[in-house]
Amino acid sequence: MKNSTSKTIFLLLSLGCFFLFSCSRQLLDIKNQTYKSYNRNSEKGYVVSFELNNTAIIPKSIVINGIVQNITKENKIGTTYQVNVIAQTTMIHNYQVKLEEKENGIYFEKDSQLFFQPVKFKLITN
C-alpha cells in the first residue's frame, strides 16, 4: 500500500513539473511593456511599446483595449517594438478599426502557427 502511494505521489509530482516546464517554455520574455494614449488633430489612439529579445518569434499584431493593430517591420528598432494603435481617425479615408473581445496582449507567429500571449501593459500618463 505504501509503495503504490509513493508511486502515485511521484507520478503526480512528475506530471506537475512537466506541465510547469512546458508552460514556461511557451511564455515569451516581454519587457518594458507600456502604452500611452494620444489625441491629436483628427486622430485618437495609443502608442504601445515593448521589448522582445527572442528573434525566432515574430510578433504579428497587438491587442490593446479591444483594438487590434498589425505589427510591421517598421515598428521594430533593435529589440524594441513601437506600434501606433489607431482607435479613431478621419485622416485615413475609410479606415476601419479592428475590434476583438480579447484581453491585452500580442499575437505571435512561430513555425507558421499563430498564438496569443496576454500582456499586462503599463499605462504611462503625463
Can you put this structure into words, describing what you see?
With 126 residues, the chain is an alpha+beta fold. Helix content is 20%, strand content 48%. It has 1 helix and 10 strands, in the order αββββββββββ. The strands form 2 sheets. Strands 5-6-2-1-10 form a 5-stranded mixed sheet, with no helix packed on it. A 5-stranded antiparallel sheet has the order 7-4-3-8-9, with no helix packed on it. The termini are far apart. About 8% of the residues have low confidence.
**Pairing-aware structural class of the strands and helices?**
alpha+beta
> Mean pLDDT, nearest integer?
84
* Relative helix content: 10-25%
Low-confidence stretches: 17-26
Which term fits the overall shape? elongated
Rg: 20 Å
Number of helices: 1
- Largest sheet, strands/sense/barrel: 5 strands, mixed
The side-by-side strand order for the widest beta sheet comes to 5-6-2-1-10
Strand tally: 10
Termini gap: 65 Å
Element string (H = helix, E = strand): HEEEEEEEEEE
Q: What fraction of the residues are assigned to beta strands by DSSP?
A: over 45%
